[in-house]
Write a structure and sequence with these properties.
The chain is α/β, with parallel strands linked by helices and 366 residues long. It has helices spanning 2-32, 91-97, 130-148, 160-171, 188-205, 209-218, 225-237, 248-256, 263-285, 289-292, 313-322, 340-343, 345-360; strands spanning 52-60, 63-71, 78-82, 106-110, 153-158, 176-182, 300-305, 328-333. Helix 3 packs across helix 4 (160-171) and helix 5 runs antiparallel to helix 6 (209-218).
């Protein structure tokens, strides 16, 4: 009896010790499960006619790329999201924070070449150029136009995505109903210097000797990819990426809670982000959009975070005032840094629905 009691006690202790691990494994299995995107259904559980909710793989620019289509009505104006990075897929974040847009737009979530599930070891390194990405974007635009019978599309670029959006809106204005730039790039070299000066000043002000040591070690730009990432780390810690309580870690966890992402996406994120940065950073960091693209034939709207020090918003504001367009508008997000869609989602969605949508109604359909 004593032996049985001892064995039972040992079993219970082992079980209690293992419970946290079991719970973690269950949670992980849920996260790793097959990704999907929910249908739009009415009060009776029936799929809403003319709605769309698909995650697809299509050939764009000669390689397989991931693209999602979501909207309660495919007759709504098409909105193509151009994520940041290079190589930073934000589709799951837009789904979480900005799902309200799907009631007013046909939203196209595109994972760019070398990003997330559009990353593979087979992508030719020589194809990782801004010119090729613009060609890829044209492929996405043509896919949307032909499949959904659209004459024009709306482009919404965030950070690196504003490079593609700006160039495309200027070059292919006949296919663009409006361009929205969030965290708009203006002058790469000047922006990196502004970011460095901000981080260095903050390190001195806060007596943060670890930051000061690393920032002085990497020195002012131009920076390698590793030096740039070190600068981004300190800029985020000092409030240049997020003004409130958000952080990169919190955004990653938020993305993993959505139906459309899992741990596989986290792994692919790391692979694609490094691959994309390695091959695009030299060209991206030296780009000066404000010197090349000042005249547009489409409506332009900039949404800027007041506290953005990743892509300094003060430079985007200067660029905005130099732009010529049929109509243009600058909207400040006072409680945001580099990520207004996720830091102030309600305001962001409201601007898109109440100010951008009226500009394009009647222009997007044939």
């Amino acid at each position: 009896m004593k032996l049985f009691a001892l064995a039972r006690q040992l079993f219970m202790r082992t079980l209690i010790t293992a419970i946290p691990l079991l719970v973690g494994l269950i949670e992980l299995s849920v996260i790793i499960g097959c990704v999907r995107t929910k249908d739009f259904r009415d009060a009776n559980g029936l799929i809403i006619p003319n709605s769309i909710a698909t995650m697809e793989t299509v050939t764009i620019g000669g390689i397989s790329q991931s693209i999602w289509f979501r909207g309660i009505d495919t007759n709504k104006p098409a909105l193509i999201l151009l994520h940041g990075g290079p190589g930073t897929n934000e589709s799951a974040l837009f789904r979480h924070y900005n799902a309200a847009l799907e009631e007013h737009f046909l939203v196209v979530y595109w994972e760019q070449r070398g990003t997330g599930r559009s990353y593979s070891n087979d992508i030719p390194q020589e194809s990782m150029t801004i010119a090729q990405f613009v060609i890829d974007l044209d492929g996405v635009v043509e896919l949307v136009r032909s499949r959904f019978r659209k004459d024009k599309v709306i482009l919404l670029g965030h950070s690196w995505g504003t490079v593609l959006g700006t160039i495309y809106a200027s070059t292919y204005s006949d296919k663009v109903a409006a361009y929205v730039g969030v965290g708009q790039v203006a002058d790469g070299p000047k922006g990196e210097r502004f970011s460095y000066d901000f981080a260095l000043a903050q390190a001195i002000q806060r007596n943060d000797w670890n930051a000061l040591h690393e920032l002085k070690r990497i020195g002012p730009p131009p920076h390698s990819v590793d030096a740039m990432l070190a600068l981004r780390k300190w800029s985020e810690r000092f409030g240049g990426a997020f003004h409130g309580e958000l952080s990169t870690g919190k955004l990653i966890w938020t993305a993993l809670q959505t139906d459309e992402a899992n741990v596989i996406d986290l792994i692919k994120f790391g692979q694609g982000n490094r691959f994309s940065l390695t091959h695009l950073w030299p060209e991206f960091s030296s780009l000066r959009l404000k010197h090349q693209y000042r005249s547009f034939d489409v409506p332009i709207l900039f949404m800027l975070g007041r506290h953005d020090q990743i892509i300094p918003s003060v430079l985007a504001e200067e660029y905005f005032h130099e732009i010529q367009a049929p109509c243009k508008q600058l909207v400040w997000f006072e409680q945001s840094a580099h990520n207004p869609p996720f830091e102030e989602p309600d305001k962001f969605n409201e601007i898109m629905i109440q100010q951008v949508l009226p500009l394009v109604v009647g222009l997007s359909d044939k």
